[in-house]
Amino acid sequence: MQTRFCHINCLSHGISDRNSSCSTFQKSDWSRSRRLMSAVKNIMFCCVALCLTASSLWAQGPEMVGSEAPTSSEPIIKLDKPTVRINMIETFTKVVELKQQILRVDGFDPNVLQVTAITPNQIRLQAMSQGVTQVTLTDENEKVYNLEIYVEGDVRYLQAMINDLFPDSAVRAIKVSPESIVLRGFVAKPEQITRIVDVAEQFFPIVINQMDFGGEQQIKLKIIVMEVQRAKLRKFGFNFLLLGENGYFASTPGQLTPLASLTSAAGSAPAAAVRTSALADSTLTFGVVRPDTIFNGFLEALKKESLLKIYSNTELVASNGRPASLLAGGEFPILVPQSLGTVSVEYRPFGTSLEAVPILLGNGRLRLELQPEVSETDFANAVTLSGTTVPAITTRRVNTQVEMNFGQTLVIAGLLSNRDKAETHKVPFLGELPYIGAAFRREQYDEGETEVIIMVTPEVVGPLSSEEVPPGGPGRFTTTPTDRELYMDGMLEVPNYGDMCSGCEAGCVSCQAGVSGRVISSGGPDQDYRVISEGTVIEHSPIQNGTVMPGPGPEPVQMLPSRTYQQPVPNELPPVAPPAAPRIPDQTSRSQMMAPSNSLIQPSSGMIQPVSGTVPPRSTPAPRRPRTANGLIAPGGN
């Protein structure tokens, strides 16, 4: 091998004498050529390695640095579409994997996203801050993949708290900026919206509320209608009557004081009678009576000012988009002709009416459509039909729309109505004379002014749950008093102790007013009372602060102190707790009355009266003694 190589080198240097010169060249240049060839090999190897390294780094980009293998908790997204959207939460990571090796990674924002290489076909995406960016991947086959990265803010703690505090709501928290957040979704109750916003404000100073009520929303409209009517009336009139033996002269414009009768026979004394009821129309009446002449004058001078205020406070509840109406006034009948000469009656409403349609806009706002109307009867333009006067109707109507927040108040004013009415009743020619013409005419001037103000306040309401329903309502805890309580005590109502029940056993808890044979005393254990016969009712004296549970009894009974009797009573009943009411109505109709502890009760002439006495003799059956505890008296037995 060395001889062949030497021969080739000699030929390359133009040496033909193989035997003489080749050996010299072999000895001098062999070591140098060998070193040169080794150096060339090293240089070529280094160049190839550098090229491969540069190509790999160029494909990976400046941000691609070595990274650890993906963990089991990291989600791996395998791309099979050219365009993919990936949602991430800040500080979270995801792994993207391609089927081919990744050649290039371009186009992402390093402030939002960091990209690191794991394997030739895997990269790790790490969300740095909230924002949107795009990543372009190119594999070794020059196939391009576009990744749309959407990085959301970290609101996991707030979301978990909302789900824990309001489990029946479906609200999602979205972080918009480091200081603001958006709440979207539905709540089960309208009042939960404010509570969720209060919780979110503890995490972010700016809370954008986009929550809605999931069920059918009910809107309560608080409507206040105020109507003021001012009227001024001025009247002036003068009527007179001159009656003599041979005739009379009278001026009564407007029928101020019409005459009831007139008598004036020739040669006889005149006589005139005036209706007594007509005198009420005049404010000044005077007259002069002579044997042959009577003169009467009736003067009416009236000035009146009146003021009327109508105040109506009403609450309406309407569904979203459905109308609600209000009418504060009345209806008047009118006759409507029908076929075959028949007449029917219809009613037309008048007064102050309001029709409202609430429309929810979300975020605590609504659109309110209002149509208030004020109408009144007008007899000045009335018509007469078949002898029946049908008045006309004057109407003021407004139709308006407004957008407002819940809790704000809308005021509608300016519904004014002015009416001036003047009437003059006079005698022709005489009533037009200056000065003296006032005696032959009558004037009436009427001024009217009406102003209506309407205030509407919308609120979101919902039905009450069973736990929120109050235990009672008006009249449930009171009842009508007895005769003694009404006439003697002056009480209009007394506490209600429940319905009377008959046939109750001892210990009945559902009956609060009629446990047969049971008397409850709240005076203490020292007040020990007994019932002589079973089924009796004893009403305790109010002086001793007792409470009685009435029940039907066959006959009046006697009540004695407990120290008088010595026999025990079998089949004792357990004590019963006293009721919460302080007293009960007097049941005088059931032959019951109060008695002190040292007196006896016996019948006398059909009435129960307290009498003084001693213990009955031993020959009579002695009653059995019931147990008493804490002022409780159990029914006795035979």
Supply database-style keywords.
mainly beta; Immunoglobulin-like; single chain; 638 residues; Histidine-containing Protein, Chain: A; elongated; disordered C terminus; 5 domains; disordered N terminus; 12% helix; six-stranded antiparallel β-sheet; five-stranded antiparallel β-sheet
What would you note in describing this structure?
The chain is 12% helix and 44% strand. 18% of the residues are buried. The N terminus and C terminus are likely disordered. The strands form 9 sheets. Strands 12, 13, 16, 17, 23 and 24 form a 6-stranded antiparallel β-sheet that branches. It is elongated, with a radius of gyration of 55 Å. The longest helix is centred in the first third of the chain and has 39 residues. It has 5 domains: 60 residues, no CATH class; 77 residues, Immunoglobulin-like, CATH 2.60.40.1080; 60 residues, Histidine-containing Protein, Chain: A (2-Layer Sandwich), CATH 3.30.1340; 157 residues, no CATH class; 142 residues, no CATH class. Strand 12 and strand 13 form a beta hairpin. It has 638 residues and is mainly beta.
